[in-house]
Amino acid sequence: MREIPSGSGQGPSGRLLALLTAGPGASGWKTGLVTVAGVAVALALSSLLIAVTGGSPLDSVRALFQGSVADSTAWTSTLLYAAPLLLVAVGACVSARSGVFNIGQEGQVLVGALFAAWVGLRLAVTGPALLVVVLTVAALAGGAWAGLSSLMYRLRGVNIVVSTLLMTFVAQQLVAFAVNTPWLLQETRIGDAVVAPQSNPLPPGALLGSIGEYPDLQVNGGLLIAVTGAAIIATAITRTRWGFRLTMLGLNPVAARHAGVRADALGGAALAVSGAFAGLAGAVLLTSPVGVHRLQPGMAMNIGWDGLLVALVARNRPGPAVAVALLFGALRSGGGFLAATGVPSVVVDVVKALLVLAFVAPPAVIAVLRRRGSGVRTARDGHGAVPVAERTAL
Amino acid sequence: MIGADDVSTILSSAVRLTVPLAFAACGEYLAERAGAMNISVEAMMLGAAFGSIATASATGSATTGLVAGVLIGLLIGLVHGNLSHRLEIDTFVAGLVLNALVLGLTGYLITISDFDSHQVSQVSVPWLRDIPLIGPPLFVERWPVYLLVVIVPLTWWLVERSRWGLELRAVGERPRAADVTGIRVNARRRQALLWCGALAGLGGAYLAVGEVGSFNQNMTAGRGYIVVAAVIFGGWRLGRTLLGCAIFGLADAMRLALPALGLELNAQLLIAAPYLLALLAMLLLANRRREPGALGRPFERGSP
């Protein structure tokens, strides 16, 4: 991977890939510099927004800090959010690296949670075996949901980005249908009580417990799953033949095909893997104390969309994604504390979006500057590879 | 039983729900013909809806709000164009980030501010409004609705008959060939996104100052994505795209109207209908022949 020059020899996502894997070459530190500048601008803009609208940026930062990392309760909450975010992000890394851009994670999270809830409530298995079944089924369901998009692409050439996006809205209604239908998953009516659009709580055997309780800090099992997943995918991408083929397919599908890579199968598998990770994130949302252990239509809480942003900030590397997921988890957890300062918590969404922009733009800026600087106007300094995402973009 | 009045009410509601989609779809249609696919339609509509209400509240004029909405749509189109057709950031990534940014920004600003309700005036066309059944839905509407009468033919003329449109289509089909003949591919795509931004902005602004009169968080709720779906559903033809918008608007209207009529139909199915229809259209209709050859693919000189 390190030999790949970070020149403008690839399309945008290819360039992104090349840059993030490039060694400390000339463009590496330049990109880093522009990124740092971009992050500074993003934070300055966010502070400006808060200041202009009558809030205090300093107080907001303090509140974010208190709500996310100041004490062990805050850390517990941060880690709870970080786990599903990381799972989604790791999956997104896999598909993006193969050149297939999956943006339907929000739906895959929901479908994972839906099937997890169904199995958890209906299966007559007791004890920890149930948890294993629940997690497995969620991963399979999420993978199958993403696999549908892959199938549609193979059968009729339906654009994967568009189909995964549209499937998200179908998934939302599927879950709404399930929790509104008594014979599916709606909670049991007790006497004359009003039933809400949600499922019954999952049995204790299906819940993810803490793997460590340090006086107050509780580390949920979901985080262990997520970090393990990140480690496995990081190793698989950099150390295995599968990972090599995957990256090759993303960087240059034509060369990959000539080298014997079965592009459709590998790309489809990558999409399914990313869906499986999102489905697993859905199960973690359902079974860890981040929610109420019930299937609810709003339970995905934009984790799917945010996890995608985490992968973008980490430039599709599972390792850095761990740190970014922690940051995004901290922002989510700290956002709840903002209300006390009079600044609406939704401001963290602005901060997140600006941060993503600060990480996505620099490689492109550098590439444009280089092209201008070298006076390349008519031809590029290499034979470019077009990642599959662009080839398949409809 | 359902009477003629009920049908008329449902049709009115359908027309009102279709109009914002139709405005934005005209813009997205033109952008996609130029090969510039953007899911930031959602951001354009949402930002414009917010901007129009904010401006209307500040100036006291709903029409000024409508203009402000168009300008905000233009601004987002400009940003998207520069991100994905100057910096060459993947267009879906750029759209995703813009959507997240505008959703957060408008959600933040609406919680800390308080706007008055403003609506543009209603126009009732004499004689025609008396036609039974279709009279009231079509001829008693807020005035921006009638802009469609100009904008739809104009969009068609721009794409199919003007020199600019010919260049746009060339850029969308064979960017490399277009480049060789001296057309500035990325400039054309940026221009197409400006048109898309202005019209999506008009659609979003109509939603706010035309229909609802106020703004609430995430008020477009995925309408931008429906617009993208409509263009695909229509197989990149303007007439069918607008037909798609009308079908999606009707499905939405049915969802609102059926419970009131005492009819049982699955609400979730109706909400999911536009997305399912678009997916089915992509799967079943032989649309791909009509698809612009370079749709969604970035252009860079010298690349294959």
Could you give a short account of the major beta sheet of chain A? 2 strands, antiparallel
Order of helices and strands of chain A, N to C? HHHHHHHEEHHHHHHHH
DSSP strand content of chain B:
under 5%
Number of helices of chain A: 15
Shape of chain A: globular
> How much of the residues of chain A is beta strand, in percent?
under 5%
Largest interface: A-B, 65 and 53 residues
The percentage helix of chain A is 55-70%
Number of strands of chain A: 2
| pLDDT averaged over residues of chain A | 84
Oligomeric status of the shown chains? heterodimer
> What overall form of chain B do the CA principal axes indicate?
globular
Order of strands across the main sheet of chain A: 1-2
- End-to-end distance of chain B: 62 Å
Low-confidence stretches of chain A: 1-12, 15-26, 378-394
Main sheet overview of chain B: 2 strands, antiparallel
SSE-based structural type of chain A: mainly alpha
In total, the number of strands of chain B is 2
Distance between the termini of chain A: 29 Å
Provide a quick synopsis of the model:
The complex is a heterodimer of chains A (394) and B (304). Chain A is an all-alpha fold. Chain A has helices at 12-21, 26-52, 57-68, 72-97, 105-122, 128-156, 160-180, 221-239, 241-251, 253-258, 263-287, 303-313, 318-338, 347-373, 388-392; strands at residues 210-214, 217-220.
